[in-house]
Amino acid sequence: MSQSLSDLTIATYNWIVQRPDGVGFATTSQDQRQQVGSMSLEADMDLKPSNLILRDRMYGSRLELGGGLSSPALRLGDLTSGRWNGSTVRLLASDWHRDGDAIPICNGELDKVVVEGGEVSMSIDLLPPAIRRPPCIQTSPECRAVLGDRHCRIDMRTRRTRLCVIKANANELTVDVSDIDGYAMGRLRWISGANCGVEQSILSTEGNKLLLHDVPEFPIKAGDRAIAHQGCDGRRTTCAERFGNILNFRGEPDLPGSEILMRFPGA
Description:
Layout: E1 11-18, E2 24-28, E3 34-36, E4 39-41, E5 46-53, E6 62-68, H1 76-81, E7 88-95, E8 103-116, E9 119-125, H2 129-132, E10 160-169, E11 172-175, E12 187-190, E13 199-206, E14 209-212, E15 225-229, H3 236-241
Antiparallel strand pairs: 1-2, 1-7, 3-4, 5-6, 6-9, 7-8, 8-9, 10-11, 10-15, 11-14, 12-13, 12-15, 13-14
Pfam families: Phage_BR0599, Phage_phiJL001_Gp84_N
Protein name: Phage BR0599 family protein
Domain Bacteriophage phiJL001 Gp84 C-terminal: 183-258
């Protein structure tokens, strides 16, 4: 029995995913490659929307995706290692048998990934980044600026170093840099090895040893290389003594907080 075009599904979902470092891919739910405008979408992703929640209030709007991972562009190890954390996700719909631009459905940021068996589910936060930020500046004892941003104004080009792992035990590393004491609370970005592209937080340092905040998804081997960025604990003394940047300090350590209400007279 023959079927007409009107009996078939003609709507396709199109995904455009981009990591913070610029790496990304575009894919479609159609069974063959599709051209949408100037963009070519590969037909190698088996993810479909399972739940779309749109709310009037500020929080709660999100998109749930479910399916299997069949694309070489989005591997399970990359998801669980954090390579795609913070990625922007765009969902569009198009008519596969007609030329024309795709209709945007929603934009969001990859929030959470859950893997059970061979199935994967992803949660996309649809709250715009501008709404996530506090509407006004709040006071805090520690500095609110991020080291190297436009508020801090420290030039980070001279405060990073390349290093090579000599020995590794889970998240404890011995590197070929003799003194990395200024890199506690900083960031480490892998540029070789199985964790290449993954960024981790540095918990503490001592001499040529450093402790990462968590154990990476893939084992670290001797010879793996990374770029370490200096860190800051946000204290006024650190800002003044280590960075000489007290004029740009964005904290109020001398401002009494709510704990002053708990004090007794004479305390």
